[in-house]
Design goal:
The complex is a heterodimer. Chain A has no helices and eleven strands. Chain A is mainly β. In chain A, strands 2, 4, 5, 6, 9, 10 and 11 form a seven-stranded mixed β-sheet that branches. Chain A has a four-stranded antiparallel β-sheet with strand order 1-3-8-7, with no helix packed on it. In chain A, a hairpin with a 2-residue loop joins strand 5 and strand 6. In chain B, strands 2, 5, 6, 10, 11 and 12 form a six-stranded mixed β-sheet that branches. In chain B, strands 3-9-8-7 form a four-stranded antiparallel β-sheet, with no helix packed on it. In chain B, strands 1-4 form a two-stranded antiparallel sheet. By secondary structure, chain B is mainly beta. Classes of the chains: A mainly beta, B mainly beta. Chains A and B meet through strand 4, strand 5 and strand 10 of A and strand 5, strand 6, strand 10 and strand 11 of B.
């Protein structure tokens, strides 16, 4: 069964450093997403991406965050200057048809120290 | 704005017993509803979804859910649970936009004891 692949599975970074989280969506999917889950809290929407541009973003997705689909297969989330409160599990997801549900990756646990 | 409420944060149950995990949503528009499961140290896996049609939806691993529009509920049920069903279960609603951005509940931790 096709999978969404995320790397790395775990990343530790120092506060103020830039991090890039990588995702390989399912190949025929057109909609891409990032969500995050702070430990013990609910899963929260960050951003959706379609047709090579951001289609929607949440209040969490401020100027420190950016997304890119650099080569037609990868989908990345960059945090420019990490803060302690960015520590969370970050999930990538992709969908063929958007609103009808999508497939999540297994997540990247980001720890900012 | 849409929201999802999962009334129980933890549900302990014995193996082979039935279980119901409750989910209520609020929305002023038509919704699409989902249940996801997260096993320890793993990602989110889709259990089942309601898009339209029959209000009783069957999913993987023997789970089913019933959409009740009048009660704005989408409770998840399984008639007989296994140890391997121990996981966290998330109810989610799609905001109805073409992107399908999901709004999640806080999750319910199901613990199945022998």
């Amino acid at each position: 069964e096709p999978e969404v692949t995320q790397t790395p599975s775990h990343q530790v970074t120092q506060m103020g450093q830039e991090v890039i989280l990588r995702c390989v969506p399912i190949s025929n999917h057109l909609y891409f997403y990032w969500y995050r889950q702070i430990l013990g809290q609910k899963v929260e929407f960050l951003v959706s991406f379609y047709n090579n541009e951001i289609s929607e973003k949440s209040e969490i997705f401020d100027d420190q965050f950016s997304v890119e689909r650099p080569d037609g297969s990868n989908f990345t989330l960059k945090i420019r200057s990490t803060k302690l409160e960015d520590s969370a599990m970050y999930f990538c997801a992709s969908s063929e048809q958007g609103r009808f549900g999508y497939t999540f990756g297994s997540g990247t646990r980001l720890t900012v120290v | 704005a849409q929201s999802v409420t999962q009334l129980d944060s933890q549900v302990p149950v014995f193996e082979e017993a039935p279980v119901e995990l409750r989910c209520n949503y609020s929305s002023s528009v038509s919704v699409y509803l989902f249940w996801y499961v997260q096993y320890p140290n793993q990602g989110l896996q889709l259990l089942l979804k309601y898009l339209s049609g029959s209000t009783l939806v069957k999913g993987i691993n023997g789970f089913e859910a019933e959409f009740n529009k009048s009660q704005t509920s989408f409770h998840l049920r399984k008639p007989s649970v296994h140890i391997s069903d121990t996981a966290e279960y998330f109810c989610a609603v799609s905001d109805g936009g073409s992107q399908g951005n999901l709004i999640f509940g806080k999750g319910t931790k199901l613990s199945v004891k022998p």
